[in-house]
Amino acid sequence: MRILVLQLAPDTRGRPLPRFEPQLGVLLTLLRGRGHALSLIGMARFELDRLKRSLARELPQLIYADISGVCINLAQRVFQHLSGREGLSIVAGGQYPSIDPAGALSLPGVHAVAIGEPDATLVTYLERVKDPISGAVTPGVWLRDEQGTSRPKLPHLVEDLDSLPPPDRDLFDYAAHVSRTGQIEVAVGRGCPQRCAYCVNPLMESMYADRGQWVRRRSPQNIMAEIADLTRRFAGVASVRFLDHAFAQDPMWLAALLREFRTTCALSMRCHLRANRATQAIVASLATARCEQIDIEVISGSQFIRDEIFQMDTSEPHIRELFAWCRSAGVRTRAIIYLGAPYESEASLDETRNLLRSIRPDVVDSRCYYPLPATEAAETARENGWLHRRGEEQYHGEQCGIDMPACRPDMIRAFAAALRSEFPMDWGEPWWRRWSHKARQAMQAILARDRMG
Ligand code: SF4
């Protein structure tokens, strides 16, 4: 079958779309292995001409749309355009359809929704589409037809992640990503043991409550084999970015991975560390494994926002210690903070600034808070009538998604500007790094000439 995969995702920090996403990559490998002809485009906003060109070029029989939780309006517009096309089926999957399958199924032209991890749902569903007479339902795939809507339960989770093939990267133009950044991105597992209220992980975990082990990790050998393969395939790989928030939350597994990493490869690395699970020994072992940067979600200087609203289970003294350990181990830190969370106020913003002053991160990644649908924090905002009337347009405009009398979005804007003048900021990829190699060389030459006066 000819399948056009649409990645509907926000334009995040200057990273081009389609953007590599490990679970989508594994799905693409599995579909390709079953003989489907695949093409992939990414969109952060409605681009009619591009969509028309892709349809004319690929002549798809099926559209699989991977929809982010902040791209529901975009999906609506894209499907509106697609829904009139004869012989074209639309199947939706990814974050939004998983948290609101009924809503996704009501989008124009969508006849099936694959919920949760797509390896066991979509792949099986497409096999069964070939044999419609069997009439078998696919676990985790909601369907709408003349008889109504069927809502089968989710399948069991894939517990042995080593049994899955490596994710496809070529469709994401990964060679260009490596040449821009010198980095490969690797996911070491699925699921997370934490229950932060600004994240969809708690909901996903509860959906799979009786469906197997939620937190799963690949074996260190399996991960290292993927890294070795990527280093061979892509020129210019200098470091590995481990994507998982749960990366360092199992000390025994982590020690085994870092041992393999230290002894079998020469790359540097970067990873996440949760403040409530970090120890000095973990920081030291990461430093020994050539960890150059640790990303830490500090989120807010207010203990009330961090722990009561977002349920992060942190303590300010421990956050301070963590940044001090990283500094003394020679590892750069990136502090991620949200501005404009529920119950944000002038006082809590001051607490955030004071905490940043005391922990002195190497770089600050400051984001306007947007309540992801189906999270507990979004529910808190909704109950209080704080959800911004412009909805996800606020997210795409990098503005706060909630609007409280005590803390209007313009107050957050002013505070964010003040932070930018005080702390080194993480701007994501500079826009010129998205250019071709030749164009970048030209721009670098101009910048060098300017620097020399
Ligand atoms: S640690 Fe990260 S992935 Fe896990 S629940 Fe918190 S925000 Fe979500």
In short:
This protein has about 450 residues and is α/β, with parallel strands linked by helices. Helix content is about 40%, strand content about 15%.
Record the SSE blueprint.
Elements: E1 2-8, H1 22-33, E2 37-43, H2 48-58, E3 62-67, H3 72-82, E4 89-93, H4 95-99, H5 101-105, E5 110-114, H6 118-129, E6 141-145, E7 148-150, H7 174-181, E8 183-186, E9 189-190, H8 201-207, E10 216-217, H9 220-233, E11 239-242, H10 251-264, E12 268-272, H11 280-288, E13 291-299, H12 303-309, H13 316-329, E14 332-339, H14 346-359, E15 363-368, H15 376-383, H16 392-396, H17 409-422, H18 437-451
Parallel strand pairs: 1-2, 1-3, 3-4, 4-5, 8-11, 11-12, 12-13, 13-14, 14-15
Antiparallel strand pairs: 5-6, 6-7, 9-10
Using the alpha-carbon principal axes, give the shape.
Answer: globular
Q: Largest beta sheet: what is the strand line-up? A: 2-1-3-4-5-6-7
- Report the average pLDDT across residues: 92
Question: Helical element count?
Answer: 18
User: Considering DSSP H and I runs of 4 or more, what fraction of the residues is helical?
Assistant: 40-55%
- Cofactors, ions, other ligands: iron/sulfur cluster
- Biggest sheet features: 7 strands, mixed
CATH superfamily of the largest domain: tm_1862 like domain
- Computed over alpha carbons, the radius of gyration is 23 Å
First-last Cα distance = 58 Å
CATH arch. level architecture of the largest domain: Alpha-Beta Horseshoe
Number of strands: 15
Q: Briefly note the CATH topology name of the largest domain.
A: pyruvate-formate lyase- activating enzyme
The CATH class of the largest domain turns out to be Alpha Beta
The unreliable regions are 429-438
What is the domain tally?
A: 2
Q: What's the quaternary structure here?
A: single chain
Structural class: alpha/beta
Strand content: 15-25%
